[in-house]
Task: structure prediction
Amino acid sequence: MADDDKDSKTEQPTSRRLDKAREQGNVLQSQEVKTVTMLTAMLVVVWLGLPVVVSLLKNYLGSILDHLHEVRINDPRDLVHLASDMLIHMGLALAVPFSIMVSFGLVASIGQTGFMLVLDKLIPDFSKVSPFTGLKRIFSLHTVSEFFKSILKLIVVGAGCYFLLKPRVKELELLMSMDLVSVVLYIHQTVIKLIMTMAIMMLAVAGADWAFQRFTYMKNLRMTRQEIKDENKDTEGDPMIKSRLRSLRIARARQRMMASVPKADVIITNPTHYACALKYDMESMGAPVLIAKGQDYVALRIRELATEHEIPIVENPPLARALYAAVDIDQEIPPDHYKAVAEVISYVMRLKEKSRGKFQQR
Result:
């Protein structure tokens, strides 16, 4: 059953699945990237930081030797003061390489995973204490891959160091005839080249390991199609409920639209399939506004409301179809239809003037 479940997980993880894994502390990271970063930090420390530390300690120890005769050995307070002063200066000198190592370590960690705080990781998991669980971890695919990766690292780094140090074996005999400063400089340069070689070799290993870790990480988070459907339901809601809500929103919007029909100045129809209600106020509007539109049954209701409220109905099939397709509710008509609409509104105004004149004559 477990194999069947794995075989059914063919879909790539969604962003929500990745976010949930991150919340649980399950993030993509490679230990070899951290190793390369720390080797780079060591290179910076040895190449740039170590000379600064040696210079600081050299100057400090030189000043101590110059004033050593002032220290009273039989006075415990002088000895305590000297010891504390030495510890402070050594701490300040070592703060340089320590700060470099810590900074590179933070970059290696946060650079891969980003800043994250997972409190669940602080809670002890007693299931990991189980001997059976321990045996499963020992003989797992991950452990085997880590074992072969360690062998690969040993071979790669060992080969690089061997080819670097082999030509220098004969030079070791010459160190006996060199002064102390030259010996220290020679060792310093050799260590720099050794760490640089190890870092370059490990960079290739880290690149391969990161690609492998990413493949494994994404594979472990794969989802079945059913899981994706369930997630979509949780995220976006049940499709039936969404459809019902959409229908309610459409119905309420239609009710608000129908409530605006009595405010219209003219209804332009197809005459039966389309109906568009226009309102125009010369003082407050730059152009006529479409306040309602509908097709078939909705068009019929618009005509019925227009008849009830004595709103003029004008049959103009091309204009009705054009307004229905091009203009949304509560929008002004586009300039392309100004002329046709102006003719309709002028006609309606003339009708109103005639009706008003007849009423006054009565």
In short: The chain has two domains: 27-220, 242-361. Strands lie at 266-269, 274-279, 289-295, 313-315, 331-332. The chain has twelve helices and five strands.
